[in-house]
Every structure is written in C-alpha cells, then in structure tokens.
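Q: I'm building a small set of examples for a reading group on sequence design. Run inverse folding on the following structure and report the sequence directly after it, with nothing in between.
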C-alpha cells in the first residue's frame, strides 16, 4: 500500500504542476507564442511578423494586440514589439472599452508589465466623464497586467469633443472603470442657445487630485471658472452627468463685483441653470467698482472715497444665479453699507435680493434700517440703491421708527433766518 500511495501522490503533484504551467501559458499570450517552438530552438532569439496576441485572465479576454513585428529575447524575459497598430481593450463582460496605438512596446515577463512608448495614444470609450471618446496622449504608458491598471506618470494631455486638459499623473483601473487624475486642468466648451451670448462658452476646471467614477467623481483642491465667476473648494463630489457639484471645506465664490463664502456649496452648471447655493454662515461682500483717478491730480472727494468701501452681508442661505448676476438671501440677514462722511447703515431682513446689473438690494419681511445717531426705521419692503454716489433707500410701503437729533440741531438757525 505504501508504494501505491507514494505513486499516487507523485502523480497528483505532477498533474498539479502541469496544470499550473498550462494555466500560466493560457493567461500569458507571450508564453503561448513560444509554446510550440521545437526544443532545439528554445534558446534562439525569435522574430515574428504581424502577430496577433490576446491577453487573458483565465478564459476572459483582456485585450487583443495587433503588432507589425515582435522580437523575443533568448532569455524570454523581454519581448519587444515594433509598431502596435491597435490594441483593443475589453471589460469584464468582454465588451470593448478602449483602444491604444504606439510605435514601441516592451513586455517584461517576470513583472507582467507592458511598457508602451513611441508616441502612444490611448482612446478610452467608456469612462466616467461622459458618453464620448477620451483621447490620452503621453510620453509613455505602463500597463500592469496583474493589477489591471494603465498609468501615466509623466505630464499627459487629454482631449475630447468639447474640451481638452492636462494632468501630471493618471491611473485607469480597467476592472472598475475608476479614472484617477492628479493635478489637472480642464477647459470645457459647450454649445449654448442664448439670445446675446457667444455660440460657445468655456468652463475651466482645475484640481489637485480626482477619482472619476461612473456615477460621480471625488475631487480635492477644486477651482472652477465659468466666465468671470470663480468657485473654489477643498473637497467636492461632482456628478458630471447631472451637471451638479457638492463642495465642502474652505468655500468661495467670486466675480468682479461679489465675493461669497460659506461652509457648504452646491453648484448647478447645466446649460439651463447656472446657479450656486451656499448654506451655513454665509458671508457676501459686494465690491465697489474700480475707482477712476481724479483729473489733474486732484484729491478724491468724500463721496469718491466712500465708493471704495464694500457692502458686507451675512445670512443662513444664499442662492446665486451667476449668469443673471442675481443673488437671493434668506434667514437672519444683516447687511452693513458704508456711506459718505464715515457713516454706516445696517439693514436687517428676513429675505433679500441683490441684482448686480441694477445695483440694488431689495429687502423683504421684517426690515429694520439702522443708522447710528441718525435714524432707526422698521418696514416691510426696502429698496437700497448701491450705485456709486446714489446711496439711497426707497420705502414703497412706508415705515415707522425714530429719528435722532441733538439740542444743537434743534437750536440751529434755519438758512432763511427764521426759527
């Protein structure tokens, strides 16, 4: 029984070894190429013309490579291909997800890694950015067959139908479809139907790191510029198919006349929306226009000096339609306006609307207007003009309150000399 048992174990070990070698050959196309080489030619360097190789993970195809020439070294460690005419990449269901071209291709058998060089071009047809081909151009690409990742560690250019961009590093996971980009900048153009706008507008997007998934993308260090509007955030989740982004951290939204800060920022950047919403401790600063220098070197007047001061407002919730330049403020509104002669005006309201084109701030609800040492009024509607030199307040529904005066004001002689 003992010899029979030993023979059975030896046979089982041999079958396992043969099965393991065959499995490696099935998974590695380069071993399959050399499988049928006669023993007396195993140590020769081989040159194959116009071969077609199939990369597999077991029975599942990963890619099909069409090559002009393939040189196999004597030690079988490196395989060098001349002109990769086309490489077709497949997903887990065996459907094409992209293609690649290059002038040079080196395969390292121990590392199971493809080095793609010679002006390589990678076309990603299924990716999280949208339903359009994404073309990647880099100095070189690395394809790790073990982890099923294609990466570029040098500055890389990306182009597609409506945009272009540059990144420092890229990782593309073929199994999950996640596209990781580091320190990138995109410029996106989209056709618009507008009355007086250009036929296309451009959106510039920059970030430090980004993981692009099929349903949403995780972005850190985001900077988004749409026309003259700039939005920045420490972290953002971008749902590009919905044209929507949710940002947190150090948030800021600014354009030439307004700065907005908050703790949570939502941006809708679809063609029919163009709006942003900030919540939690929102601060808004209405900036003055750039002052014009006085003629002949004269000193600026007190009114001109007052134009240089901004209007600061705080609220709980702010919604900004940045294409129309209109902001809606809600909850615990407080606005402080600088006036000539060093005076200030403080306004409180339940709701407010700032119209940048009309340069007006309309306050609604319980509105309180307070000017220290001058007046304090309460009303339901107030329209404040923010035009330089025309700092007026209109009260269409009347008001009630008090005016402050001193005894000197009461005893002062009127201009006509009558008391």
């Amino acid at each position: 029984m003992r010899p029979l048992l030993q023979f059975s174990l030896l046979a089982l070990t041999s079958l396992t070894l043969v099965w393991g070698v065959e499995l490696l050959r099935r998974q590695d196309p380069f071993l399959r190429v050399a499988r049928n080489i006669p023993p007396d030619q195993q140590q020769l360097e081989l040159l194959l013309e116009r071969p077609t190789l199939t990369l597999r993970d077991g029975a599942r195809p990963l890619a099909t490579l069409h090559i002009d020439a393939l040189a196999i070294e004597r030690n079988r460690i490196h395989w060098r291909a001349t002109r990769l005419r086309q490489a077709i990449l497949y997903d887990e269901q065996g459907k094409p997800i992209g293609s690649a071209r290059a002038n040079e291709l080196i395969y390292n058998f121990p590392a199971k890694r493809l080095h793609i060089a010679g002006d390589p071009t990678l076309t990603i047809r299924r990716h999280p950015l949208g339903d359009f081909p994404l073309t990647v151009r880099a100095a070189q690409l690395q394809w790790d067959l073990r982890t099923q990742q294609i990466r570029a560690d040098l500055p890389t250019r990306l182009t597609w139908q409506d945009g272009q961009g540059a990144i420092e590093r890229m990782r593309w996971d073929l199994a999950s479809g996640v596209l990781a980009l580091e320190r990138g900048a995109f410029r996106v153009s989209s056709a618009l139907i507008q009355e007086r706008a250009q036929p296309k507008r451009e959106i510039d997007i920059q970030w430090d790191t980004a993981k692009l998934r099929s349903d949403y993308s995780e972005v850190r260090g985001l900077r988004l510029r749409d026309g003259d509007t700039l939005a920045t955030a420490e972290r953002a989740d971008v749902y590009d198919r919905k044209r929507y982004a949710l940002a947190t951290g150090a948030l800021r939204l600014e354009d030439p006349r307004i700065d907005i800060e908050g703790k949570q920022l939502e941006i809708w950047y679809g063609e029919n929306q163009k709006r942003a919403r900030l919540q939690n401790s929102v601060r808004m600063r209405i900036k003055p226009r750039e002052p014009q220098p006085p003629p002949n070197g004269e000193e600026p007047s007190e009114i001109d000096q007052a134009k240089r001061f901004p209007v600061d407002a705080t609220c709980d919730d702010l919604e900004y339609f940045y294409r129309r330049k209109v902001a809606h403020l809600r909850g615990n509104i407080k606005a402080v306006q600088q006036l000539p002669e060093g005076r200030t005006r403080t306004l409180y309201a339940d709701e407010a609307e700032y119209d940048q084109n009309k340069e007006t701030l309309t306050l609604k609800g319980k509105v309180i207007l307070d000017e220290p040492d001058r007046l304090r009024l309460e009303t339901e509607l107030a329209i404040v003009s923010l035009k330089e030199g025309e700092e007026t307040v209109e009260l269409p529904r009347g008001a009630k309150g008090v005016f402050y005066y001193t005894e000197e004001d009461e005893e002062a002689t009127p201009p006509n000399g009558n008391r």
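The helical segments are 2-27, 29-33, 302-306, 407-411.
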